[in-house]
Amino acid sequence: MPDRNRRVLLARRPAGIPQPDDFAIDAVPVPEPGPGEVLVRNLYLSVDPAQRGWASAEANYSQPVPLGSPMRALAVGVAVRSNSPEVAEGEFLYGWFGWQDYAAVPVSAIFRRCAEAVPLSAHAGLLGLNGLTAHLGLTALGRPRPGDTVLVSTAAGAVGSLVGQIARNLGCRAVGLTGDDAKVARCREAYGYAAAWNYRTDDWAASLAREAPEGVNVYFDNVGGPILDAALRRMAVGGRVVQCGTASVASWAEVPTGPRVEREILTRRLVWSGFVVLDHKDRFEEAIAALAGWYGQGRLVLDEDVSEGIEAAPGAIAALYRGENRGKRLIFVG
Amino acid sequence: MPDRNRRVLLARRPAGIPQPDDFAIDAVPVPEPGPGEVLVRNLYLSVDPAQRGWASAEANYSQPVPLGSPMRALAVGVAVRSNSPEVAEGEFLYGWFGWQDYAAVPVSAIFRRCAEAVPLSAHAGLLGLNGLTAHLGLTALGRPRPGDTVLVSTAAGAVGSLVGQIARNLGCRAVGLTGDDAKVARCREAYGYAAAWNYRTDDWAASLAREAPEGVNVYFDNVGGPILDAALRRMAVGGRVVQCGTASVASWAEVPTGPRVEREILTRRLVWSGFVVLDHKDRFEEAIAALAGWYGQGRLVLDEDVSEGIEAAPGAIAALYRGENRGKRLIFVG
């Protein structure tokens, strides 16, 4: 085990998407857990689009990460010392442990214990915030019915690849948008999408109109921007739009413009909802049971894209926004 | 009773808001009701913002009115002949009788019988589509809770004036936007709004921020456009936006642009829904019972703006969009 704690600090406030230079890596003594605290040795650091918002100073749904402190991140680790009667040494934990080797944290920083029969890394994705986001965004806000057409943007991403598979497991027809041909193939061959398109090169709106002539019943949107504009105009009457992210919009510092939407909402009687997973804690265990069950039955493919070494962290968010990951992006630091 | 049937025909397809020249008035023999049909003598013709959509050739949620036929309209009338066992001569009826003196219609054109103890004209507004729209848009999609702040655009209109009063009757705090100072006063003095502003002259967004520092819980929007843009940015987390109309947008032939909204929806976790009253037929009688009950208890003020003579019809829609009406706009042709 390392005898120093390497940390990825937020060195300056990013303009838009965090870039490698926005971070600095240092090494400090391994922290001492205080009374009631647990010392976690991180194993898998999670890389998530939401980190862009956490690093930003713009008003958001969480407090910004203070400059000079370790980048906020979820991680899977093991308790190497515990001053809490609630945590045993040797327990595997998933929680707010940050981009660093070690975290001395109160029990409230622990999101879940890693108890289910899945690979350890899957606790950071499939059974972590990504899986919860996919399952609860789709079911609680999207309210899919069997036979519905469910459109997913970032269809091959950590969340989107699960949305497509969950939709199919619920008896829906999933169609997806992603940013390169290899991901298109993966969507069709592994994630159960009935159709998938490369939004950069395909005339996907025309293809979607042919593939779903009755319109889209549920649109699970991670990107916003022009893809959203086009998708809104392909919704069926009574369709549901789940706004889970706005990854395609580089900056909100000056609010960009787009075609007005109120007439689409009115005439198509859409229900367009904003989804933030932490609003839905009361349904987390239900979602995890469903996800773990499907995984155990071989009904969920789990793709992970794992780098080794904490040096990979500073560039990882920007790479995610460039669409370079293949499945759930993790950094192994064990 | 007139011995001819005067009719307001749609003479050409309007460009945007229907203007007087888009209509022509003719006079034809009083029609004969066919088998199963009812001959209705109209008394009150309704003027509604939705007629703009009915007259338009743009894709919409109803079929466009054919050129050369009487303008589609709701009206209150009396059955003067009946070939249907379901309707007695002398019954007062509210239905799709068009802008004309007489209508020979099948029973399916009757929306409701006028049975409640309210003024006859009120069946075309308070207990008609306006009241149903106000009540069901607010309750079914807006889901107000006691203590909520409910913002209403066109706050003094046929729908808006009822939304404000219903919100107050449900224990909410209503605040409203309207287009002139006389209407602002009427909102405050008669319709129970805690605050109301003239959107043309007041810095209403700043006033709203002071009046509702915690944000707006329900926005009942009849206008779209820049008022909607500003209101979205004053919503509370978890707020509901009811899109009931887009009256401020002059034309959708080229879709106008506006500031993008997806980040507001996401970070504020809004639920933005499109409301078309005819989707909610299963709750019409419940809504009418509530409205008639409040009216009987003196808890709903009913303002009507009644012109005499069918010649008032061709200019009435445009006048409505100019905001010239004081309350529910009707044309008496009895």
TrEMBL record, chains A, B:
Q: Does the keyword Iron-sulfur apply?
A: no
Give a GO molecular function annotation for the protein. Answer: oxidoreductase activity, acting on the CH-CH group of donors, NAD or NADP as acceptor
Q: Which Pfam families match?
A: ADH_N_2, ADH_zinc_N
Q: Which CDD domains match?
A: PGDH
Q: Which UniProt keywords apply?
A: Oxidoreductase
**Coiled-coil parts of chain:** none
- The Enoyl reductase (ER) domain covers 18-331
- PANTHER family (alphabetical): PROSTAGLANDIN REDUCTASE, PROSTAGLANDIN REDUCTASE 1
Q: What is this protein called?
A: NADP-dependent oxidoreductase
